[in-house]
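Exercise: predict the fold of this chain.
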Amino acid sequence: MNVNGIRNKNLKKESNGIYSTVSGNDHSHRSCCVCDSKRDRLLLSSSSSPTNLEPQSLNFSRPSPRGLGLSRSFASSPMTTVPASDSNLSQELPQLLTEFMVDMKCEGCVNAVKSKLETIEGIEKVDMDLANQVVRILGSSPVKTMSLALEQTGRKARLIGQGVPQDFLVSAAVAEFKGPHIFGVVRFAQVSMELARIEANFTGLSPGNHSWSINEYGDLTNGAASTGNLYNPFQDPTITEPLGDLGTLEADQSGEAFYSGKKEKLKVADLIGRAVVVYKTEDKKSGPGLTAAVIARSAGVGENYKKLCTCDGTVIWEATNSDFVTSKV
């Protein structure tokens, strides 16, 4: 880990590539900032009291509704308007709590990030945690919009969790398409017991419309052909559209497709181990599917403050685009 020229050799890595923080020496985590680089060099040259890298204990493992000023009933899902910049996204989104790890190093960083996020339509509340470099955002704005706003502040940011200020067994899931031709990410987040939020991004598709779906099995032995039928837990012959039918993706001339929307009666916990399938055309019966990815559990709110990848010791800020699935959501 290279933090202002210092190499941390106490690195571990998990097999799944998730970042994890381990005890180590970090001489600059508390005191450095872009505007204070000269002061940092002086501190680094004279420091003899290393700071522990272990994350500070939070007031909550899952943010408390009271602590964030969040107190609401899920009897009816709150809706707000999607920002005008995302008018191509298909549906209004329900509110959700989204967590980013942002490379903030001082109160100036905090103020800059918060001021930028508060200008985005659909964001209701921003909670900053400088000690853990975590930003929690409550609102209906798509992840893509928030990610771009954070990039515009000049600071590195990674999405680390999504959910609501309530306890669900599994509140978030993700399917990653890792090529070699089609790349993408599909994110599922439980908003209420009867509503899930879905956001997706794909690159490498042929221009035009593509059907996509949740299929029964996560068996990719024969690619999409071995994922079974569309997921339909109700087995009701009167239901004309299976729950796993996600509609249509529209890829532009560059092969990129974006989607943000919601799905009634979809339970994220029931999707783990199944597959997301993208088809060559709008007709799901035209073939077994163009590509597929297994749906895996993803971190919920307050579940992932790890900063080191235990596979190769890469610090989250040092990771390059090649370390992540190509994504704009």
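Check your answer against the key: The domain at 172-297 is CATH 2.60.40.200 (Immunoglobulin-like).
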